[in-house]
Amino acid sequence: MNPAVKTAAKTPVGESKAVAGRAPATRKGRLSAVTEEQRSEIRELFDNRRKGYSLDAPFYTDPTLFTADMEGIFGQHWLFAASVAEIPEPGDYVTVDYGPYSLIVLRTEEGVNVLHNVCRHRGARVLTEAAGTTGNLVCGYHSWTYSPEGALVHASAPGEATFDKGCFGLKRAHSRVVAGLVFVCLAAEPPEDFDEVSRIFEPYLAPHELSSAKVAFQQELVEEGNWKLVMENNRECYHCDGHPELACSLFPTWGLTEGIIPPHLEDVWDRNVQADQALKDRCVRYGLPYEVLEELDTRIAGYRISREPLDGAGESFSASGRRLSKKLLGDLRDFRLGRCSMHLQPNSWFHFMSDHVITFSAFPINEHQTLVRTTWLVADDAVEGVDYDLETLTYTWKQTNLQDKNFVELCQRGAASPAYEPGPYMKSEYQVEAFINWYVQRMQEHLA
């Protein structure tokens, strides 16, 4: 298992894996536990959403809306689940839980399988650990046993002469592995444009060769906030003055453009412009893509990707900007390549440096809690204590994550107040507006 550290309302509104012979549990258009009257009220909330402003309080606090989110967003769209570095050998698995769903992401001899973690007998969880290694999958309740492909291979059924094991395999979810990242989708018919989007971002990530990386550390934080507040917080740097450790290497002008630079950041902006040009020159030299490409709310698989400079030495997330691991990833030939930054709707963001990679995923627990999982990856031949110091490697983003946790929780408490009303997004928060636009469009399509 990977090393890990775990930190621990308003009134409700009135490579693709074919699904083995059956549709996944989520069916388009179904809102379980939501009455027609509630659905009508939810539609009205979406229809009345004021563009350029944060959402009304029920979007962050209401359990019925959370149920709708789980089916309309997390039950229909492609999600980042894990990296192949977390399951390096056949038999290795991680379990991924969000809302009412639990999935097994399992490495096999042929690739990666994603199975619903629900026994076909009486619904018990089959695998109960967050990660591990297994051969066949054995339910601990009545020992029903499944192959790594999900087929039922053993079920003790005295007197059941006509019992057909072939009808009771584990349900499978769709999956894709792109540049070493594992994506899952529970919909019967997944959105098709993810294939096109993956062809866009894969060239940016491929040189880092995540298939030959390993996990240095994984952190899990439960944030007392709605999943949308977690994502909104991530999609802007308006609050980055609250990240002193991160500001050593990440330019706090991220998201700003010429003409809206505050006076106290003018020198930083000039330094950023110079560093950006130097980075572009290096990318041209090495044949690396670097342009900003973004379609955050204009397609179903919303994304943003770019390669951007880091401050200081420009190598990594350290106080000086210098490398945090002595080993380069993949076939990269230069440490000073800034960071390749990727945002994917609805639940993930990533930083790819030359010396290490950090993946982030947000998994909703309920309407007011979200699990944020952060994973640090280094080259497979990097040796802890020799090539990198674990505390130094993880320090900046451990601190940043705790600070973000506090910001999200401040917003959650505010959204629960009778005095709350939506406020305007600033120009530098355009990605927040794009995320909310994406969310509203997808949910309106689902509710229709």
Automatic annotation (TrEMBL):
<keyword id="KW-0479">Metal-binding</keyword>
<keyword id="KW-0223">Dioxygenase</keyword>
<keyword id="KW-0408">Iron</keyword>
<feature type="region of interest" description="Disordered">
    <location>
        <begin position="1"/>
        <end position="29"/>
    </location>
</feature>
<dbReference type="Pfam" id="PF00355">
    <property type="entry name" value="Rieske"/>
</dbReference>
<dbReference type="InterPro" id="IPR001663">
    <property type="entry name" value="Rng_hydr_dOase-A"/>
</dbReference>
<protein>
    <submittedName>
        <fullName>Aromatic ring-hydroxylating dioxygenase subunit alpha</fullName>
    </submittedName>
</protein>
<feature type="domain" description="Rieske">
    <location>
        <begin position="78"/>
        <end position="184"/>
    </location>
</feature>
<dbReference type="GO" id="GO:0051213">
    <property type="term" value="F:dioxygenase activity"/>
</dbReference>
<dbReference type="InterPro" id="IPR017941">
    <property type="entry name" value="Rieske_2Fe-2S"/>
</dbReference>
<keyword id="KW-0001">2Fe-2S</keyword>
<dbReference type="InterPro" id="IPR036922">
    <property type="entry name" value="Rieske_2Fe-2S_sf"/>
</dbReference>
<dbReference type="Pfam" id="PF00848">
    <property type="entry name" value="Ring_hydroxyl_A"/>
</dbReference>
<keyword id="KW-0411">Iron-sulfur</keyword>
<keyword id="KW-0560">Oxidoreductase</keyword>
<dbReference type="InterPro" id="IPR015879">
    <property type="entry name" value="Ring_hydroxy_dOase_asu_C_dom"/>
</dbReference>
